[in-house]
Specification:
Helix content: 25-40%
Order of helices and strands: EHEHHEEEHEHEEHEHEH
Structural class: alpha/beta
Shape: globular
Distance between the termini: 23 Å
Number of strands: 10
Radius of gyration: 18 Å
Amino acid sequence: MHFLQFATACAAVASAATIPAKKRNADASNKLEFFGVNESGAEFGTAIPGVYNTDYTWYDLSTYNTWVSQGANIFRVNFMMERLTPGSITAAFDQNYLGNLTQQVNYITQLGAYALICPHNYGRFNNEIITDTGAFQTFWQNLAAEYKSNSLVMFDTNNEYNTEDTSLVVQMNQAAINGIRAAGATSQYITPEGNQWTGAWSWTTGNGETANGAAGQMGSLTDPENKLIYQMHQYLDSDYSGTSATCQSGTIMSQSLADATAWLRSNGKVAIIGELGAGDNALCQQALDDGLSYMAENSDVWKGALWWAAGPWWGTYIYGAEPTSGVAYPLVQGLLSQY
């Protein structure tokens, strides 16, 4: 979403090498390979490091069982870099915060689902744009080393880079990829994000020559394991910001994805919608059905989607999907059963 902040001991890392990935009814032609939800709350607040359950929170493990039983097979686990490596990007991990993150990862992957871990930092550390590619590579090499034996972990390089040079965003993504692979994490997917809040709707336009899809920009990323899934975000309100329950039209999602679809196919790339949000009303339901059906029809390039957002502190938020009280929980339940 387009805002920078919203209001235990380290667990052992479990290997998922023998845990089969949760499949989503592959016989159904309209089923996406990945569908799940964002878990958000560990990145809340501005206090650094902050107090657990006062300034920020982690996620109710029992809700993962609920989601998986309804067809979810991926969770984007959001956290804050400054709490994980207090003081600097390359600092030693805070073992309590890392322990909580690892507890979430282990629980998810032991259910056979994917844990997509995401520094929810907008390409920034301590409110400053990250420009040190070496430090960023080190951060990712250190973090990936914690999960290198777990093939059901995915790595999201950073949430919603924005208002910076796209060439820098490309460099940061490549540094993350290099660090992750250098750690020995070779079996996991990586989801690079683009500039300008990684919007699917603006992927090929944005800032002209510095658009994510421009020549020499995001399409130039390389991975020796060939396991990149580009992450784009898509909201359906008037300015694509995810701040309104009103959708533009019943076809806005498929229309918004059309240019990105063509870019993915022409460049031999695949993508996932890492944040998807819309209101729980008839028009938005029409738009979601239209867009998710479009993604399923173009499953050679679109791999799945994650709803924004679940988490115990969202309360009455318009897209909140925390089981079972979240405003959008019934909507997301229906989407999981259908797509």
